[in-house]
Design a protein that fits this description.
54% strand, 11 strands, eleven-stranded antiparallel beta sheet, 2 helices, 221 residues
Length: 221
Amino acid sequence: MEDFKNIIMKKLYIFTVFFLFILGNSQTYSFDFITNYTLESADKKFSKESVNYFNSDDFSYSLSISKTEDHFTGTIYDSNANKAHCFNITESKEKGEVIFSFKYDYTYDFKRHNTIKTSHIQLTTLPETSPSKVVMKIYSTKKAKKPRSESILSLKTANKNLFPMYLLSRKGISGFLSNNSLSGNYIVTSEIIKEGKATCEFVLKEYKNVKLDLVVPTPLK
């Protein structure tokens, strides 16, 4: 009969091989920036947050956070692989700082689509603001002469082009503008939206640098 030491060594060896196999058959997504854009009605009676993590060097994927009374989840949307990877999140505090722990749950097929059915978006920099403010007009069709809605984007100088963070947070318009639709290194700090008689604001409430790596194992669930 094998002695206890040999049994432990064999189990440790099997665990190590299994662990290395998992690492070798997985994908890591890295994030270095988090934003919190909030949509607010003019009377401040309605607000909805859009919290997302980004890799500021690769906007082909992003991590969207969703929190309700019953669920706290995060979803990585990978536009290159057309996959969405879902994680359950637990929240704890350590030395007064809020810590999020992510646990992989499942993956489903994903293809980015637009909730706003529009054919044309036009961006125009206001000359006198050089170029801290940009007018965005959304037209129902390419032939339409009158925009369905009009927005004024306020910009802040950044160390790189962070316009895609606004696009991915805004979601509905991201398919009609590219990451380079706005030239220069800026981050969108607010958007005043006017559609008909309604007015609302999409505001960057918080943004900061972070370090987060999430591993998605293969085969996928």
